[in-house]
Amino acid sequence: MFSNASNFVHGVDKAFLIIFSISLFFLILLTTIMITFVIKYNKKKHAKAVQIKDSSWLEFTWTAIPMILVMLMFYVGWEGFLPMRQAPKDAMHVKIIGQMWKWSFEYPGNKVSDTLVLPINKAVKFDLVSKDVIHGMFIPAFRIKEDVVPGKNNYTWCIPGELGDFDLFCSAYCGVSHSYMSAIIKIVPEDKYNLWLAVLPVKKADDNKEGYKILEANGCFSCHSVDGKKIVGPSFKSLYNTSIEVNTDGVKHKITADDLYIKNSIYEPNKDIVDGYQQGIMKSYKGIVKEKDLPKIYEYLNSIKAN
Ligand SMILES: [Cu+2]
Q1: Contact between residue 218 and residue 285 where contact means Cβ atoms under 8 Å apart
Q2: Do 266 and 289 contact (CB within 8 A), yes or no?
Q3: What residues does 92 pair with on adjacent strands?
Q4: Measured in angstroms, how far is the CA atom of residue 170 from the centroid of ligand 1?
Q5: Exposed end of the chain (fewer CB within 10 Å): N or C?
Q6: Could you tell me which residues are beta bridge partners of residue 128?
Q7: How confident is the model at residue 307 (pLDDT cuts 50, 70, 90)?
Q8: What pLDDT is stored for residue 10 in this prediction?
């Protein structure tokens, strides 16, 4: 409670504490009244029920008090929320890109990182972009959570106020590996940040390759990663022209992942099954991935080999 991790902690925790206290107060009050009444108005003592009606005083009270409390809760919530939508004009910008199932952070100068490194005590505005489905950018310690919606440029911002490592999660269920969609935030002194940014490599132009676009358009990346991670299928990283162990009609053998193998894997995925994977998960893309696009896919797979 009330840490200095970001400038929003105070507003959010205050609203939480007030709403929680009001709820707790009524939980105890109502439970006590209920139990008291159960005992006091037990049927054994009062065989005949008496109707009580028309108490203007009572009705006014039970309308006015909750009204005031609800307005109070709204007010503290609003007070904490409003600054989250008002990023300072001179804030530095970091683009947060969500995709199935990882986060990447793009800094000015086309530099991309898997870890969100930020200088302490400096306002940063996050431009939130999704490459596929709806994700949720959630940093519990900073008390910020904002939807990352494809086709919509959403944003949020904050001023980190504590050195150290924090977690960033995805708060919107976005598919099989949703629970693995997290990242580390490192808050460091400004000079350390500047050093780190200076050596951060400039993004490779993979995303602009035609082969990448074809694979993305066909949804291949929901089962195949490009960073070596196994998702549903094997990773595309270090696949091209390497030796793969496959099962063909139950016989295990080695095969080179050349153009022909890649083509067969796309058009007849259930013929050579990569060892350790199941048959029948990948459908045939015959007629979906066009033959003239195959060379672009080979070229792309070759280009990410050493990623
Ligand atoms: Cu997600």
Answers
A1: yes
A2: yes
A3: 124
A4: 5
A5: N
A6: 96, 154
A7: low
A8: 92
Distance CA 219, CA 210 (A): 14
Q: Which helix (H) or strand (E) holds 247?
A: strand 243-248
CA of 231 to the centre of ligand 1 (A): 14
pLDDT at 208 exceeding the cut of 80: no
Kindly indicate the confidence band of residue 219, based on its pLDDT and cuts at 50, 70 and 90: confident
* Distance from the alpha carbon of residue 130 to the mean position of ligand 1, in angstroms: 9
pLDDT of residue 100: 83
- The CA 214 to ligand 1 mean position distance, Å, reads 22
Span from the CA of 237 to the centroid of ligand 1 (angstroms): 22
Q: Distance from the CA of 230 to the center of ligand 1, in angstroms?
A: 17
For residue 51, pLDDT over 60 is answered with: yes
Domain 206-303 in the same topology as domain 92-199: no
Looking at the domain that runs over 92-199, which CATH code has it been given? Answer: 2.60.40.420
Residue 172 has pLDDT above 60, yes or no: yes
Q: Which amino acid is at 161?
A: G
Q: How close is the Cα of 171 to the center of ligand 1, in Å?
A: 7
Q: How many CA atoms lie within 13 A of 127 on its CB side?
A: 11
The CATH homologous superfamily to which domain 206-303 belongs is Cytochrome c-like domain (1.10.760.10)
In the reported structure, the alpha carbon of residue 1 is separated from the centroid of ligand 1 by a whole-number distance in angstroms of: 27
C-alpha 51 – ligand 1 centre gap (Å): 56
pLDDT in tens, 240-290: 999 999 998 889 999 999 999 999 999 999 889 999 898 888 889 998 899
Domain boundaries, the chain: 9-85, 92-199, 206-303
